[in-house]
Please model this.
Amino acid sequence: MVGILRRMFNIHPGEGAKVLAFTFLTVLLNAGLGLGMSAADSLFLSHVGAAHLPVVYLGAPLVLLAYIPVSVWLMGCIGKTGLFRFTLIIMAVGGVAVWGGAALPEGILPGQSLYYAAKIYTGVWYVALYSLLWSFIDSYFDILDAKRLFSLFAAGTSLGMMLGGAMVVGLVDLIGVEQLFLVWAAISLATVPFLAMVTRRWKSLESDAHDEEGPRIGFIDQWRIVVSTARQSKFLWVFGTVLVTTLVINTLCEFQYMRIFEEGRTEAEIAGLFGRLYFGVNAFNLMMNLFLFNRLIATFGVRNTALIQPVVYIASFSFFFISSGFGAAVAGFVAFHGVMASIEYNNQNLLFNALPERGKAEVRAIVEGIIEPMAVALAGLFLVIVSSRISADAITVSGLLLALFAFCAALALRAEYVTAMVAKLKDAWLSFSSEADQVVALSSSDVKLLRDAAASADLNRALTAAQLLWRSGDRDTALDALADAIGNDATAPPEVMETLRILARTAEEQNHAALRILEQWPNRSGIGGAVREELERWQNVEQAAGGGSGQRNDLSKGLTALTSTPVEEREYLLNKLMPLLDGDSVEAVPPLLETVMDGDGAVRMRALAALARVGDPDCIPPLLSVGAQFSPAERRQVEDLLTTIGLRSVPNLVSLLTESDCCHAGRSIGARALSTLAFPQLEALSDRILSGEIDRAYRYLFSEASASKGDASIENLPFLARLYRDLRQESVDYVLEMLSLTGRMTDHEMIAASLRSSNAKERANAIETIEQGCERAVFKKLLPLIDGRTLERAVSSAGGGRGQLESDQEDARFLVESVRRGGELECAAAFHSLWGTGQRGAGLNEITTRNQHGSGASPLLAEMISTALKREVSQSSSELPNTIEKVQILAGSAFFSQFRMTEILDLALQAEVGCSVDGSTIYEAGDSCNAVYVVMSGAIEDGEQTVIQGGLVGGECLAGAAHYVETAVSRGARVMVIPQSAIWRASCIHPNIALALLAHQVEVDLYVA
Model:
């Protein structure tokens, strides 16, 4: 039975007790509140009359205006939980006070003050307690939990109001109306120990919760935060307009039905009527909250649900206008206490989540505690002025017009919701995709510090300062610093040569080289020999490029020199060749593609620019096939290349996007270019692309599950399980990008990063943004892949999932499938595991099929097979590890384990394996950092610590240090050596690696000199 209820209400395993506790808390609070409101309404209508309700509408906001600063101050002193506890005690004291006031002899209290006080008192707690309760609950659940569970808590409020109404009906004839306030006081006191139990057992999700720790925010500061948020968030203005308008309509609606209910009824009859009404309407609310609200949100979404309340009020005031009898009053009561409570208030809790996280609590406190009561006061002032001067029909028409305005505002809210969710996810977003020149912006004080650093005796410090000064435009100081570093020595350090090249690449004129820079130095004739050799080398390169006359023989000569010149020297040649290239220079494509494949940084960017001048569509497939090797800036350059080629690139792009052989990065570049060149074409393909990629993600999901539970005799299954998980995430990222490119949502990179956040609320907000930005069918298929559910639950949620899982596990079929359909890394890794099993033949058959279809055997696969065959022939495992095994080794290292397998692959391709004699020195303290060493076997003494298998030494490289701090001595270690240059290059390509390096640098407190 428990399992059935858990599935019915979508309660996850392990959270049943928590859900039950919070639901019971809402029942207790609202049982007392419903009882008190019924009693107060009965006393007021029977002793004062509905005509005087506008005075209450004006008085209640004034009390709330006094309550809010006090509550903020108390929250600063005792925290949110303490304020909640204190509120319960005050409610108990207030209930006793109202009962005591009614028991006093007549004439002691002036006039009808007690009845005004009771009505205002219950009205204030109806607003304040609602805000405090839901703010408290919101701190324990994220947006995904809210969409599943808040309807249950709202059902608890309905059940509580039902119990309150039932108690009124059952007790009013036994103990009288006034004694009902004593019952309310008793319920409030009983809630205090239960609240203490809840807060002890479960921890709030808000790390900066005011009731836990951190600075307290005063009332003035709270307003400053609200004003700041309002300046940044258009959504807040639209949402506030909807809230204020709805509350004014509520007041007009309540005034209308109260006037009808008081006619011809005694105090006890009115109390009984309200008891039955509260019971009945909350029975409706209970059913809505338990069974319909979640489905309503799931079907129409948060944005569309916001339209319901205005539509209901349009219908209600139309009913008032047609017939102002008891039926219209009941309809108005249901609209206010039924639809408003079970749909609109619940949906508002979800809409509040779209506010910026910083300031959300303050905005909600001000909006609900001050702005909303002022809206009620505005309606009360209107009624005070006009209620005795205009007819009830005129008030009804006013309400109808306001309901129409609220509907229009809700339409605007619907449009702003997704934008607000995206803006919220952008908080603290860090981008590594900008060019270095774009991120150097120095103040005058920064320049002064750099000038001082440029004169430093520390060579690395001086050269780094010179580079930054050059980029910021202060080139005279930079050149002087470089000249001083060179001096008159016969040789110059390698750092000077590298700085010389960097300054040449960032010069304003495209043909600037080191020679042009040195020529700017007046009276610098005593230049060291190493620098003179550098000048001569650049002059030789210039001569090899031809004279730049524009003749075809110059182009042919330059292209020949391009393929024979070292990669790092090709940039200058490319600058010389650029004026000679045009659409007829198709012979330049092969050497330019070779330069793109072999080069990086500025050389690669210039080669891509040269390809753009040629504009040959045949360069597209080879370029996009290596898209994963490009940095963000290079990917944008390739995209510009494709758009420069124009519509002639569309056939290639369409073919590439509908084929699965190309890497995700290449298809991403192609999709971006196609969205610019032929958006209708991309839109027409989008459903096919999305469906295929989601299916591929599910294949990775089933393969991951199969590898996780597969035969232990198959080699490296845990490694494969992790690889499949990474590939699944890449597929999801690509789906999000396609949704973004086709206009369904925005900022897919930020949303993808938020899905991987360790913060539950941030992940939930990202999923909410996705849901609001794509079709229901797509989101339903995508949800099991992104919501963090367990592997078993994700497999179970897929149609036929368990059957496919069992089929995949049988005879390791998932590995054969990976060899047949997988990309380069997946294919090689799967075949590596198949090699030692009886399925090797099946794997070889699939490789043959791949060759027949043009996919071919990748270099990774060929290397793996070659290594395995050598080991079988020699009957020895002494062969060096292949690249797949290097990836496995790095994946087991603590630092590199946080990266995706495709990211680790880039490092493994550059890594070398070596052995060292016991007692030999790997590096000494003070040596220049040039590599990181991962221990494969044996051990290394790094200073006073001993690093064993899986550990790394030379971590100073990861933090950007110039020199090693300790001396590393081998104890029979076999190590994998990863050059520092490979790590930095990988960080330019993969933002995840850049973030990890930044975090490591901050952690060890080492900075580049």
User: Anything to note?
Assistant: The first strand starts at residue 912 and ends at 915.
